[in-house]
Specification:
Strand order of the largest sheet: 2-1-3
Number of strands: 3
Radius of gyration: 29 Å
Strand content: under 5%
Largest sheet: 3 strands, antiparallel
Order of helices and strands: EEHEHHHHHHHHHHHHHHHH
Length: 409
Amino acid sequence: MPRYSYKATDPAGKIVEGAMEATEEKAVATRLQNMGYIPIRIGHPKEGARGFDIDVLKRISFIFERISTKDVMIFTQDLSSLLDAGLPVDRALSILIDVTENDRLKEVIKDVLKTVHGGSDLSDALARHSKVFSTLYVNMVRAGEAGGVLEAVLARLGAFLETSQDLKEYVKSAMVYPLFLVFVGGISIIILLTFVIPKFSIIFSDMGEAIPLPTQFLLGLSEVLRGYWWVVLGGLAGLYFLFRQYARTAAGRLKLDKYKLNFPVSGDLVRKVEVARFTRTLGTLVRSGVPILQALNLVKEIIGNEVIASSMGRVYDRVKEGGRLSRPLAETGIFPPLAVEMVTVGEETGKLDEMLLRVADNYDKAVRNTIKRLISLLEPAMILAMGLVVGFIVVSMLMAIFSVNEIPF
């Protein structure tokens, strides 16, 4: 039977930690509730660090520590659990200060608690930390406070952040092996060009014009890399800097985003990712009680593609004029017909939020499947490309060796 660690609070607000064996996490939560505790976090126990000073490690890690989306997600889910158990906001925040592992986030929560004690709403306190809590996050919390359903809104927000984080982690894990191939292949080619080929250059130094053209090219490239590697690196860094500067301009970003959408293979993937992000965010906002026009403005801010974001302005104008959401979405030419039809059904049945979230689920699955197919094609393509480069180097050197017989003595 698996063993789970837990953090909980008793009726007096004291933090209780421990571990117990259970068939699943729900069983641990039920047992804790029967014992009179309020579960905060349940998971598998972590092995403690050995041979190190924990305080020193914490001080060192604080310098490099940052507040990630995962940290905000855990904070949101824990706060939702505590509020759902009937605790007031200030007491729930006090408990989270003790259980939060990220020191930077702990300082943020302390400031939020101080602001709440000063008479401000939770949403206003969170808005003071815009780098941690986005405009979307703050507005959803504000809507929950206005409707008296803050704990339910936080639960939806936690689920939203968890789904987004899962997709990011999936993409990262899927790209590990291809990036490893690129790294190993690149290192192998650099070693061949800077260490192996120069050994042959001594042999071919007196061959003159008898050296085949491919071999001359490799010897020249090897000499450039060994003698002017700093120029090559500086040139690449300069090109990257210029590209970044261009991408930061409004015209440059719009042009690059348009190119991403029209790219043969990845364009469809970018479109699906943005459709899933748009529908999930809008559905979560509408379900949380945010008015549709305000929700559209918020969604526009979190869309990563400028072409799609600009089209949201036209959607907003049409809805503001009294039109339905589905028609201007179809007119953008970005949203697939199936997604538009599902939004239409949601509007007709009065379940727009439910249909938007269903569309998001469908396209999240489509994104995962598309990434899986791309990775399955990318891996052999990269192996083939690396093989061709290495093969070209080997064949070029063999051609030079065979041409030795053609040298007149």
